[in-house]
Design goal:
This protein has eleven helices and 13 strands. The chain is of the alpha/beta class and 349 residues long.
Length: 349
């Protein structure tokens, strides 16, 4: 049996995503060697860190990983557990998960209210009681805060701050040769280079970016789409075949944080067309790197972002020359959530 201050449950990159990027930066900037990270999606291509925080892994099917987590929480001692998931369905097993400490919940998803409403009566009953078991619910957007108002019990606390933690350092690594050569070629042929990233899902609206690049007006631009996900290699091969006739489009797999930051600094615009979003860590990174950003208005955005209404998704490109938004619903001191997380962890220790 081991003794820890806190247990952080989620994933580390790769694969890259909102949860894994958040926990990687949490590990680099906030956690201590008295904490432990449980990676529910282990792989041989994980990003390494010099930090001495212990990392435990749970492998296998969803049931096997849940059993692994169950046993770890049962056998060890700790002051709090911070659970990080992307969907509500990850909470189904929480009615039987052993609870020996304070629990924190962060859902890195802007569409949890819609997901909840799609459920049947039994699903809603389970989720309502699962959420009730958490001592602190971390709300990362106004829509999430409104959703959690339905479940706020007397013993429960809703903490509202972003998931953004600035990268601890920028190494400026070399871009892969194929990317560097593509950028050199298309910067000489096109006025602006656009970049977008995420999972190949409808909410990311990548088809809208592709449609624009294939249009006559889109020939002034070239675009890169970085696809996340464990199955991205096969998918990217299929997409490259499907869109091979669009010369000014590059579809590629996800890269390490350092390489992706370097890629962001190499383009003219980072574009976030999501119809659902929680915050967009890549949006905040691009702004802090001095890159122009265009993003939908479906959630709070980092100040300096150019905002377009999601109702105008078909004409998103018309907003590329608009002025950035300087208003933000989250207080400026919470834009980088390191201090808020340290205070929360210390309070529960």
């Amino acid at each position: 049996m081991a003794r820890y201050r806190g247990v952080i449950v989620g994933a580390l990159p790769l694969p890259v995503g909102g949860v894994s990027t958040f926990i990687y930066r949490l590990l680099e900037n906030v956690l201590t060697n008295n904490d432990v990270v449980i990676d529910l999606y282990p792989s041989d291509s994980k990003v390494r860190t010099a930090n001495q925080v212990p990392i435990s892994t749970c492998r296998g099917s969803s049931i096997q990983r849940f059993a692994c987590l169950f046993i770890f929480l049962l056998r060890n001692q700790y002051s709090f557990v911070h659970f990080n998931f992307s969907t509500l369905k990850a909470l189904f097993g929480f009615l039987i998960l052993p609870k020996k400490s304070k629990w924190i919940l962060t859902l890195h998803n802007g569409g949890i209210a819609e997901e909840y409403e799609r459920g049947n009566k039994l699903t809603k009953w389970i989720l309502k009681r699962a959420i009730k078991r958490f001592d602190v619910v971390h709300s990362i957007s106004e829509s999430q805060r409104s959703f959690y108002d339905h479940f706020q019990y007397q013993s429960q606390l809703v903490e509202h701050f972003s998931t953004y933690i600035r990268p601890s350092k920028q190494l400026s690594p070399q871009l892969p040769t194929s990317i560097s050569e593509w950028l050199k070629l298309h910067k000489s042929k096109h006025r602006k280079i656009l970049l977008s990233s995420g999972y190949w899902r409808s909410v990311y609206n990548f088809e809208e970016m592709i449609r624009f690049l294939a249009s006559e007006s889109g020939q002034l631009f070239a675009g890169i789409i970085v696809i996340y996900g464990e199955q991205s290699a096969r998918l990217i091969s299929e997409l490259k075949t499907e869109y091979s006739n669009i010369e000014n489009l590059l579809i590629t797999n996800s890269w390490s944080q350092e390489v992706f930051l370097e890629l962001q600094m190499s383009v003219d615009f980072y574009v976030r067309l999501n119809s659902e979003d929680s915050f967009g860590i890549a949006v905040a990174d691009a702004v802090t790197l001095g890159v122009k950003v265009l993003a939908s208005d479906v959630c709070e955005r980092y100040p300096g972002t150019i905002i377009f209404p999601i109702s105008e998704i078909e004409n998103w490109h018309l907003y590329l020359n608009s002025e950035p938004n300087v208003n933000f619903a989250i207080a400026s001191e919470d834009l980088d959530s390191q201090n808020a997380l340290r205070q929360l962890y210390n309070k529960l220790s």
